[in-house]
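Thread: "does anyone have the structure for this chain?"

Original post by V.I.:
We have the sequence but no experimental structure in hand. Need at least a predicted one for the grant figures.
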Amino acid sequence: MLATFPIYIQKRMYSLIALDVGFYLFLIFYLFLKGRSYKIRGYIWIVLVYLLAISFHAVLGPHYARPAWLVMTAVMAAFLFGTRAAAAAVMLNIAILLTLYWAMVTAGGPWAGVYSEPFGRWIMYIVNISIMTLVCALPVGFLLNRLDIALKHERKSLENLSEEAQKLQSAYKALQRESEERQETETALKASEEKFRNLVENVNEVIYSLDEKGNLTYVNPAIIRILGYRESEIIGRPFSDFIFKEDLERQINRFKRLSDGPIGSDEYRVLNKAGEIRWVHGSTRPILKNGMLAGLEGVLFDITDRKQAEEAMIEAQQRYQSLFNSKTNLVFVVDDRGNYLAANDLALDLFGYTRQDLANLNYLQLLHPDQSLEPVTKALKEISETGAQQQLLEVKLKNRTGQTIYVQSGGTLIPGKNEIIGVARDITDQKMAEEEKKSLANQLIHAQKMEAVGILAGGIAHDFNNSLQGIIGYSQMLLLDMPGDTPEAGKLRQIEATALRASELTKQLLTFSRRIESKLRPIDLKEEVRQLENLLRRTIPRMIDIELLLESGQNVINSDPSQIEQIIMNLGINARDAMPHGGKLTIETENVVLDGAYCNTHLGAVPGNYVMLSISDNGTGMDRDTLEHIFEPFYTTKDPGKGTGLGLAIIYGIVKDHGGYIVCDSELGKGTIFRIYFPVLEQDRIGHLEHQKNAEIRGGGETILLVDDDKSIRELAEEMLRRFGYTVIAAADGEKALEIYREKQEYISLVVLDLIMPGMGGHKCLEEILRVDPSQKVIIASGYSVGGSTNEALKSGAKSYLKKPYEIGPMLKAIRQVLDQA
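Reply from O.Q.:
Generated one for you, tokens below.
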């Protein structure tokens, strides 16, 4: 290109210069453009160079253009694309040169002079260029073809080598990876072995191995915790040395079966170094070589604690079962809501429920209505919070039939469950005994109180009787000396009647205190009730229905009919007052037997046969406080002026005087029932009552020693006896009477002796008199009924009893009867 620039300049072909420079720049730029393939860049480069060579020939002609460009184009084609491309380039060069020559010469134009050479010469030029091109391009193309073939072969070899290299590289990498894996495996194996060794050396379980003879070949350090030996102390020793003798044969037979394969695990005992028994759980498997047993390896787990816990649990279960099957204690299980889950047979029998029935019950359903809920819920809360009940609790329960049951109960929370096991002791008999004891104590206190009140009332009545004695006695004596139709006699009779009414009041008090004599005789109680029926119906309003329930064939009692009437009428009137709006009064008689069990709980009752008189109403009833006081004198619930308060007190005294027993049951709003028990009169005591003839009441001058501490009574009695023909010697006390008797005993026919005196009492005086003369006739006098000291005096030798205050008729009659006795 640089060689043609002068010509371009000389001929002023600047456009060709620009064209050449542009083509070359574009060619250089395109050849180095990396975005195109090698062949495309080669084609473009050849085309551009070829076009440039044609342009030079067209402009400069064959002399100035030189054939090098066309030859170079063919060589380049051969170089780039091979022999065929070189041959094509030669044929193209010939065609182009001929076409240029024809076009320039025929058409003319600015460059026609360049091609002014003769045609033959031009042909020679074309031939020379073709030969030159062939000589230059074909060898290059051939060489290049061979080089290309060699290159392809080498490339193929290189590819094969590359593949082999890749294979080798892959194999190397695989070997390297395998080596790394083997190294990692060895490292992991070492770590695993170390870990396994540490694990084996530090586990709590014993790991061991035996040879085919049963000798220990390996054991880990855990052996010291079970057997107490170190590894060095037992390696080589037979394993059988450490098995407890009672389990040895079973383990030997077990090991013999190992040649057939694993035989599972077993539990047995071993002996440690100290000779103590330890329980182990052993798993063993065989070590086989060539199908032959070469040894054993196994693991031992120390289960001593578990076995001891199992034994403790079995023992606890046995204790629990023994407790649950207790014949003396009630055992039950409830959940946290108090629902019964289980109970022993004793509890079921006591409460009358089956297990199925109990499963549907809550403890609240067994509580007695009188039982407070607070202590029970407090005990359950205490068990839930602390796990146990600190103090036993007495609970009042009821069984299926409503019968009251007392228990003393305690409970404990069952570990791991929201359940409570309770143990209770039936203390019903104890509580009933306590209540019975309390009841008896109350009855005793009441009896003592009634006795004290009776003594007080008797004493008051006795003193009051002494005061009345003078009034009645002197009134009667004045009436004997006075005509009956005078006004003064009427006044004296009024005084006597008033004194006698007052005396009746004292009799009522003495009846309560049982210090007045009852006129007892055999009677049929039901007949007495029938005789009183009409009187009752006239006394009690018609709006009250009266019903008699009288048992036929009733036993006979020894009783005072007037006092029976007093009892029935008094209780009937009380029932009337308790039923102001009407009701029902029931009177019942029945033969009954009071046994020891009843009498043990009812103080004052004596076992035996009785006739019961029951009087009941359905009136207002009484509360417990009222019941405790109903038999006390002057106690009344009636309005002032409507009752003396002596009615029930008199009944109490009459019943006790008859040797009977009285009890009252009452409840507010439900009515009252009195049950009175009269002892049956035995058949051999029932006799026909003989009527005694009236004896002559006047005396025959007999001497009577009258002993009384009350001066007014003594003087009155002395005057009465003298008036009726007796000689009287009076003494104010027992000492004086004894002194007089010792002096004048041969003159004294009868002694009338007051039983209650200060100093030497009547009973002592009686004994002293009879000690002097055992045949002496003595009448005792008292304001009290026959009983107590009066009976003792009669038993001691007194011939009769004289009731105070003295009445002339009975007094003279009694004295005459005793004096006339042989």
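V.I.: this helps a lot. Residues 687-696 have pLDDT under 50 and may be disordered.
O.Q.: and The first strand starts at residue 206 and ends at 211.
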